[in-house]
Structure formats: structure tokens, C-alpha cells
Design brief:
The chain is built from 8 helices and 6 strands, in the order H-H-E-H-H-E-E-E-H-E-H-E-H-H. By secondary structure, it is α+β, with helices and mostly antiparallel strands. Strands 1-2-6-5 form a 4-stranded antiparallel sheet, sandwiched between helices. A two-stranded antiparallel sheet has the order 3-4.
């Protein structure tokens, strides 16, 4: 596995560093080059830098649990999807945004940054605060910055921040023949089961 994929994680503790506009531009270029269904490119982003009005308005839409840490991020982004164009409704728009955000997150790792994606925000408040058109749907808020000291977090979040990263083994998520029949043995995720 590539070290950039292995190194991607979603911290809640962010350093007080800033992310320069030219660095953020690289992250958003990476997002722009993501694949999408029929090359529809449905991903759209709102950008707020810590201390500016846009950041404050995005921050205000976050649920309280996310407000407890996200204000320290250098940048808050809202990832949105355009749901229609001149041809009509666009298919698989969230999939396209997901690919774009993953590109952004991996590019962040390459640049020594981190991106934490959040679903805990008020989509209608984003729509109202930024005059988002009806055919555009807010999907995710992303905090971007340099990972900081977990000691800066409240105790409950500090504990979560320092837990080891875990993923379900392939034996529980990849199937063959019928749903539920693992394509990989539990002992070795590298060798397919051939029954």
C-alpha cells in the first residue's frame, strides 16, 4: 500500500499554522482532477480561512461536537454537489464528490497536512448562509490544517485522537460467489480464498 494512503487519518487536533492560498489551490486542483460519472465533475467547494467571514459562517453551521475542535483548523471547506446540468439530473454525484475529497485528503498528506471530513453540520444553514442554489446540495464539511497536539483537545476527544487506527479486515468486507462468503481468509488478507 502507498505510504500516502497509509498516512491518511482524520485528526481533531490542529496546529495554529496557516495554510497559504497557493497550498490550498494544490489541494483543490487534486480534487478537480478526480474521476466522475461521465466526466460530469459535480464537486463544488466553499472555502473559508480561519479568521475570515466565510470560515465563521461555515463554523456556525457545525454541530456543537464539531465546533469543539474544528475552529482550530486553518481552513474549513464545504463540499457540495451540483445535481443537474443542461442535460438534466446528474447521476452518482455524491460518488464524484467522494472521489474529489479523497484526492484532496491524499494530496494533503503529501503536503504534510491533514483533512478531517464531517457530516455533522446543518445543510440548510449552509444553503441559507451562502445563497446555495436549489440544484446544489451541501454534503460534507472538511477541516484542513497541520495536525496539532492532542493535549489541546477536551479529554474525551483526546482519548479518541490517540486510539490506534483500525479497519475491518478484508475477510469481513470482500466477498465472492455470494454475499458474505469471504474472498480472503481471516488469517491472511493477502491471499484470496479459492474454495
Amino acid at each position: 500500500m502507498h505510504p500516502i494512503i497509509e498516512g491518511r487519518w482524520s485528526p481533531r487536533a490542529f496546529a495554529a499554522d496557516v495554510v497559504a492560498p497557493e497550498v490550498l489551490r494544490v489541494l483543490l486542483e487534486a480534487a478537480r482532477w478526480a474521476p466522475s460519472h461521465g466526466n460530469t465533475q459535480p464537486a463544488r467547494f466553499l472555502v473559508g480561512y480561519r479568521g475570515d467571514d466565510t470560515f465563521g459562517r461555515i463554523f456556525a453551521t457545525l454541530r456543537p461536537g464539531n465546533q469543539g475542535w474544528a475552529g482550530a483548523a486553518a481552513v474549513l471547506l464545504v463540499g457540495m454537489v451540483v445535481t443537474a446540468d443542461e442535460r438534466g439530473s446528474l447521476p452518482n454525484t455524491e460518488y464524484g464528490l467522494g472521489l474529489a475529497v479523497e484526492n484532496l485528503a491524499l494530496q494533503a498528506v503529501d503536503l504534510g497536512l491533514a483533512a478531517h471530513q464531517m457530516g455533522g453540520f446543518d445543510r440548510e444553514a449552509v444553503r441559507a448562509a451562502f445563497a446555495v442554489p436549489e440544484d446544489v446540495r451541501p454534503v460534507v464539511v472538511i477541516a484542513v490544517g497541520r495536525a496539532g497536539d492532542p493535549a489541546s483537545l477536551p479529554e474525551d476527544l483526546r482519548e479518541r485522537e490517540q486510539r490506534p487506527r483500525r479497519r475491518r479486515p478484508l475477510s469481513e468486507t470482500v466477498f465472492t460467489g455470494v454475499y458474505g462468503r469471504s474472498a480472503f481468509s481471516a488469517e491472511s488478507a493477502d491471499e484470496p480464498d479459492h474454495e
